[in-house]
Amino acid sequence: MRGWTRGRGLLVLPAVLVLLAFTVLPLCIMAYVSVLERGTYGGVEWGRHTLDAYVAFLFERDLDDSLVLNPDYLKIFARSFGLAAFTTALCLTIGLPTALYMATRAPKRRNLLVFLVTIPFWTNLLVRTYAWILLLRNNGLIDKGLHDLGLASGPLDLLYTPFAIMIGLTYTFLPFMVLPVYASLEKLDWRLVEAAMDLGATRVTAFRRVVLPLSLPGVVAGMVLVFVPCLGAYVAPELLGGAKVLMIGNLIQSQFGAARNWPFGAALAFALLAIVLLAMAFYALRFGAAPGEEKGR
Amino acid sequence: MRTLKAALLGGALLLAAGQARAEGDLFLYNWSNYIPPELLARFEKESGIKVTLDVYDSNETMVAKLQAGAGGYDVVLPSTYMIKPMVAQGLLEEIDAASLPNFKNVKETFRKQPFDPDNAYTAPYLWGTTGYSYDSARVPGGSLPESWAPFFEPPPELDKQVAAMNDEVEVWNAAAYYLGIDKCTADKAEAQKILDLLEAQKPHLAMYQSDGTIDRMAAKEVIMHQQWNGAAHRTKEKLPSVVYVYPKEGLTLWGDNFAVPKGAPHLENAKTFINWMMDPKNIAEASNFAGYNNAIEGSEDFLDPAFKDDPAMSLPEGYEDRLRPTEDCSNESRELRNRVWTRLKS
Questions:
Q1: Mean pLDDT, rounded, for A239-257
Q2: How far apart are CA B6 and CA B65, in angstroms?
Q3: Quick check: A283 and A223 in contact, CB under 8 A?
Q4: What is the pLDDT, as a whole number, of residue B179?
Q5: pTM, whole model, 2 decimals?
Q6: How far is A270 from chain B (nearest CA, A)?
Q7: Mind listing the domains of chain B with CATH numbers?
Q8: Containing structural domain, residue A200
């Protein structure tokens, strides 16, 4: 038995190596790049260190070379966080009932439904986003359809708005909400709900006091899976938002592209990482124990 | 990681090159889908030199590969703005392109450009411009002045019907031309002027978007669009009332150029190829294939008629002085440009 346990430890080795090589190492390189000086022709000057990139995140040099607070980047970060939060809320609103519906079907039917949820993954994200352009644009399917039905007059101007970005993001990330919530609801012991109702709980109370707490691990996982990638979303803001405002992802891209400022791009990515980690840590401390606690009661 | 990848690729290439390296070879490293295969076949037949083509999708990819020491290429095609940095880094071989017999065919505008004043390193391949186009059927009076003014300060009829490219370089450059400011300025007051202009323009724009400009114009989503001339040409095929504007204040001329990497194994063959490509008939074939104009006198006779007759494609007489070649700006200027772009969109 002991040998077996020891052998099992070795089984994780490939995963650990992959994580080290493809996640930890690149992160370390990026962290290092963020404290280097930029190279004249892109890239960085290896061995020449500076914290300029982090200073530039908050401050800019005025005409007389004094440092003044520059809110531009903070505004872009705040906008991205707001958009990610809205999208997460929207995904939860749509995803929770969907998952609940799926989890309450017969097992055979459930598998079919899970299969259907994963269908969007079969096509490329870019293709799906372009499809939304065709749907949302003036003279597009929605615009034209509503006109032909006499429900609208004049161009609707749906495309190239924050609304369009949110539709695109919600559409993209909805499966990441549905699947984890479904996974925790599927395991739910429905006898607990029956017991609650036997004890006089209404359907709403049973849902609120039994179903919801038990689905919380899935909901939290879903929220993280939607919120975090939304923060770095690049395609939807660029294509559906008309690019009139920047998001974090687009800002970072431009540092590695036209601005040719790799250290600043790396520093921006790290600022984002730090903020996400802080938020997660706060969440874990504040709510982390809650679902387990409920279960134990 | 990128260097490592480039090095591995380079190593593989060297191995391949080592096997095939013989007197009659030419290793061409070009943008993908940028030269007709039939043209290369004809070159092989006429010169007896065997061409091996490898392709890249960005200047940065190509340069990274050369920086990583990937030898074996004889001809590369960097964009104009990339030439100076490549020369500065010692990546290019001096070939004295001006001394090649067919260089006499190169139009005056495309000789001795600032990035290579003696044509010591480069000869021009294909080029294009970034101006803007509009649908003449939907503007007041049916035509607009040949200026950036209607783009930056659109008449009320065009409010929210104008699209700019989502490209900090192209938008900044257009603003700089309009204001008469050097596009590589590192002066904060001048950058502020550009920002003011762009911020005043932004509420009147429908969007910033570089992709799908042709469809957007053809579907009449917008009336005016900052556009490349090749895209404007294809827009006209779908919507004939579209006009491409060469603003009198100047517009960006971008292009790709033949160059030879340092230590190219077949230097003479490279020169033979570059010289052959400066022949009007040969370069016209490349233009017809890629949909971009070339810099060779007399190539007009071999161009497709639709191409030749469109002022968007064939520069109208006397417009040469409106063209402003792309430049590689200083880091200070780039930083200013990026800050203006970020503030504009914050």
A1: 85
A2: 5
A3: no
A4: 97
A5: 0.79
A6: 18
A7: 2-127+254-318 (3.40.190.10), 129-252+326-344 (3.40.190.10)
A8: 69-296
Quick check: B338 and A133 CB within 8 A?
A: no
ipTM of the complex: 0.75
Look at residue A3 in the predicted model and tell me its pLDDT.
55
| Cα-based angle A179, A181, A182 (whole degrees, multiple of 5) | 60
Number of independent structural domains in chain A: 1
Q: What is the pLDDT of residues A158-176, one digit of tens each?
A: 888 888 999 999 999 999 9
Task: Give first-to-last CA distance, chain B, whole Å.
Answer: 32
The pLDDT mean for chain A works out to: 86
Those of residues 154-183 in B touching chain A at CB distance below 8 A are 166-169
Q: Are residues A265 and A31 in contact, defined by beta-carbon separation less than 8 angstroms?
A: no
CATH number at residue A225: 1.10.3720.10
Domain-embedded: residue A22:
no
Residue B34, min C-alpha distance to chain A (Å):
22
Give the residue, B67 or A114, on which the prediction is more confident. A114
Residues of B in contact with A72 (CB under 8 A): 339, 342-343, 346
Q: Which of A137, A242, A251 is opposite residue B208, by nearest beta carbon? A: A242
Residue pairs spanning A and B at CB distance below 8 A: 79
- A14 within domain boundaries: no
Most confident of A107-116, A281-290, B57-66: A107-116
CB spacing of B331 vs A139 below 8 angstroms: no
**Which tokens hold the place of B58?**
């960005």
